[in-house]
Specification:
Length: 213
C-alpha cells in the first residue's frame, strides 16, 4: 500500500498529458491491471452500466482524430480508452445482473428478488434521458478509477471530453451495441517535449473546497 505521502506525490505527479511519447507502449501486465481496476469500479446498485473500449487500431484512431478537436493524444498515446455508457439498462439487464450476483455469490435468484425489485423500481421511475444521465455518472467513476490507477502505476493519462460523441458512436458502431461514448482517456507515457508536465498544479485552497460541520 502506498503511504500517505507517496499517494499524494503520485497525484501531484500526474497531469492531463498533452503530448505523449508515441514510441512507448504500456506493457501487458500494466494494461491488465488497468483493465481489472476498471472492472472493479463501484457503481450505483453495482449495475455497471458501462463498457470500456480500448482503441489500439491506428486507422480507427486516425478517423477519431478530427472528431476529437484534433487532439493528438488520440493518435500518439499508447492505448486510447473510450468509456461508453449502456443505453439498455432495463428490466432484462437488471435480471441478467441478478443472475450474475446469484452465480458469483452462490445464492438464488429468489433470494435476490427484493433487491431486484428495488432496482427495477429505481430504474423504471427515471425517464430515459434521466436514466442515461444517471448511467453516465457511473461511467465517470470509472474514468476516475482509471486515472488514479494509472497515476499509481506511473503511467500518464489525459481524460478527454473534447470529442463528438454522436460521431464516435457512428464510427465505433456503438449504437448497435446499446452503447454511447461518454468520456475518453488517453493512456501512455509523457513526451519530454510536453511543457504541461512542469506546470504547477492549480487548485483552489483547501479551505474553499473542504469544510466540516
Ligand atoms: C472530464 C474531463 C474532461 C477533460 N477533457 C479534456 C480534453 O478534452 N482535452 C484535454 O487536453 N484535457 C482535458 N481534460 C483535462 C483537464 O483540463 C485537466 O484535468 C485540468 O485542467 C486539471 O489539470 P491536471 O489534470 O493536469 O491536474 C479533461 C479533464 C476531465 C476531468
Amino acid at each position: 500500500m502506498p503511504d500517505n505521502t507517496s499517494l499524494i506525490d503520485h497525484f501531484n505527479w500526474r497531469y492531463a498529458t498533452k503530448v505523449f511519447d508515441a514510441t512507448r507502449k504500456v506493457n501487458d501486465a500494466d494494461l491488465a491491471t488497468l483493465e481489472e481496476a476498471l472492472r472493479l469500479t463501484p457503481s450505483s446498485f453495482g449495475l455497471q452500466p458501462w463498457h470500456f473500449l480500448i482503441v489500439t487500431d491506428e486507422e480507427i484512431r486516425e478517423k477519431l482524430l478530427p472528431l476529437s478537436w484534433n487532439q493528438k493524444q488520440v493518435t500518439e498515446c499508447s492505448h486510447y480508452f473510450v468509456l461508453c455508457t449502456r443505453t439498455d439498462v432495463d428490466v432484462d439487464y437488471i435480471d441478467r445482473f441478478v443472475s450474475e450476483i446469484a452465480n458469483d455469490r452462490g445464492t438464488t435468484i429468489e433470494e435476490l428478488q427484493g433487491y431486484r425489485d428495488v432496482m427495477v423500481d429505481f430504474v423504471s421511475r427515471m425517464p430515459s434521458v434521466e436514466r442515461l444521465t444517471w448511467a453516465t455518472r457511473q461511467t465517470y467513476l470509472a474514468l476516475q478509477r482509471l486515472m488514479d490507477t494509472a497515476a499509481l502505476l506511473e503511467i500518464d493519462a489525459c481524460p478527454m471530453e473534447g470529442f463528438s460523441a454522436p460521431q464516435y458512436d457512428e464510427v465505433l458502431q456503438l449504437s448497435e451495441k446499446n452503447l454511447t461514448a461518454s468520456v475518453c482517456c488517453a493512456i501512455g507515457y509523457r513526451s519530454a517535449e510536453d511543457k504541461y508536465a512542469s506546470l504547477a498544479k492549480s487548485r483552489f485552497p483547501k479551505e474553499e473546497v473542504i469544510s466540516y460541520l
